[in-house]
TrEMBL record:
Signal sequence, start to end: 1-20
Superkingdom field: Bacteria
Chain ranges of the Peptidase S9A N-terminal domain: 23-413
Organism: Kinneretia aquatilis
InterPro entries in UniProt: AB_hydrolase_fold (IPR029058), Pept_S9A_N (IPR023302), Peptidase_S9_cat (IPR001375), Peptidase_S9A (IPR002470), Prolyl_oligopep/macrocyclase (IPR051167)
A GO MF term: serine-type endopeptidase activity
Domain (Peptidase S9 prolyl oligopeptidase catalytic) ranges: 496-697
One of the GO BP terms on file: proteolysis
UniProt-recorded name of the protein: S9 family peptidase
GO annotations of cellular component type: cytosol
Keywords: Hydrolase, Protease, Serine protease, Signal
Amino acid sequence: MRALAAALLLQLSGLCSAQANGEDPYLWLEEVQGERALSWVQGQNEATLAALQGGPQASKHSALSQSLAEVLASPKRLAHAQQMGGYLYNFWRDAAHPRGLWRRTTLASYRSAAPQWETVLDVDRLSQEEGAPWVWGGANCLLPQTQRCLLTLSRGGGDAHVLREFDLGTRRFVAPASGGFALPEAKGSASWVDRNTLSVATDFGAGSMTDSGYPRQVKLWKRGQPLAQARLLFEAAPQDVSVWTWAEQIGQERVHVIERRTSFFAGEQHVLQKDGRLQALSKPADASMSPFADQWLIELRSDWKLGDKTHAAGSLLAIARADWAAGKRQFHTLFKPTPRSSLQSHVATRSAVLGVRMEDARQQLVQWRYQKGQWQEALLPAGDLGSLSVSALAGQQADHYLLTRSDFLTPARLELGEVGRAERQLLQALPEFFDAGTHEVQQLQARSKDGTAVPYFIVKPRGDMPKDGAPTLLYGYGGFEISMKPSYSGILGRAWLSHGGVYVLANLRGGGEFGPRWHQSAQREHRQRSFDDFIAVAEDLIQRGITRPARLGIMGGSLGGLLTSVAMVQRPELFGAVVSQVPLTDMRRYHRMLAGASWIEEYGNPDIPEQWATISRYSPYQNASAAKPYPKVLYTSSTLDDRVHPGHARKMVARLQELGQPVLYWENREGGHAGASTPAQQAQLWALSYGFLREQLMGPKPGPASP
């Protein structure tokens, strides 16, 4: 025992010495598949399972895991579909097919009470036959013929994937020996130019990838031609983020776009001409253009001044493609934001553009139609439910669209609509996975450190709150212009709400709830504002008497994992438990790990001293301390996450253990950035997370209630 204690003391002194010299003692944990690192992960997983599943917790965990597995494997789920040719295609997973089926049906059958599906590809069978843990990534089919498709599959759910040509007639892959297209595992994209030609952005070998780990070359690849002989179409700089290739089918016309990203939000777009040349679209760097019928749609992320007129950031503009080519710049404004409104998304059907508009974090469905040279706007009825998602069923080949509606307490509904018709057909509705009648939803707001009003939603039991505070889970993200919206979750309902828990969803700066300006106000040197907003919501919940620190937990993933880690380090006294999923934590090295360099526009560059001076003040890994006791924290990650390096979570856990802070760690061996690949893996992950929160926040808690 003395020898072990002496060894541990020697190890700790060595770590402290390394840190004093500016070294990182845990760099070895960045070796994703390193033997020493995986041995450490195995030890952490065993300790976490023992703590959360063992002993008196075993029966509780088993019951929770089984309950959540029922939700994830329920056959009563929405079957979203995409129409290609005469069939509607859907990807489906259930208990019998955990890796999923790619299947199809007709429109008439899809509209019936019991659609008849036929299997096109069984991913479970493919995985078994090829001995690979394939995870479905989607299909890109050549329209309008819809005979050949490019299927995307990843090993274990990572961003890197293989791409293989598939024949819908034979329902088999087209072997490369027979002229089939196939790309080895890499991050990238490919798009059909014609039946025998692809535009491809992939790893072409040495020097073909950016510093962020994405392709920087697009090549034209002919059937039967070795990939090495493909003709170069476009090349970006190594310091750029990436290049992508995509196409939009408009009737018989195919508009093919090559997109260069010089940073996460800015770049260039080029249209591939019939003669093989590229024509640049002269637009603001951070604007994006997409074709609709004979128009260009232009979405702005910053103000665009043309002559004596300024188009506001967040606007959606339209102009005839012929006028654009002729150099004209007289636009029709489809959407113009206000300080509290934004356009969340838009999609194009054959004759209309459909958009989801958000006002004070509540959404509406709007339609724009171009008829007889004029744009006409109409607000489409969508009820008073909280969250909307719209997709064009067949792209611009037809006028059908799918609308998904839900809120925190109302299961999602899938409806089929058609441009020009007021009514929509209810196709499917999720079952009620928990008794939502016991809870109610409110929208409140907190005041951030600088006085900014920060809205948040609260889902709570009806009636008065307990005098000693209710167990409360606060969730946030606050970045990359991604909006947090009300939505129904059977997992949340069963694991948390049905046990009397309160759930809070914060609309932080950095998100997209109020458009580009709301996002940009928390970028780079202003990142602390998002953290301040999150902390302000926590303080507001305590001041209102809804909860108290011992019963307040926080959860977030990816950037949200950074958010929760920062909040824990900066204000540990506010929280009773933390769950941080696939997080960033080491902001000194984030840009050197996997895709991290692509996020410099969001966080800043730590290699620039002035920017590191700002980042260093909040980076959790560098600021973790033993000076104050932290709430108990559970970190989760995935070995095969090739977006946010698992080294972030690993190193943070090792650092907290070194400091004597209470921490648990769970790392799934597959799952990519989602953290899990199959329903069983997802059920285990959520059971661990919510079981941990319930144990920390729902049991008896000592100490006085907050005033």
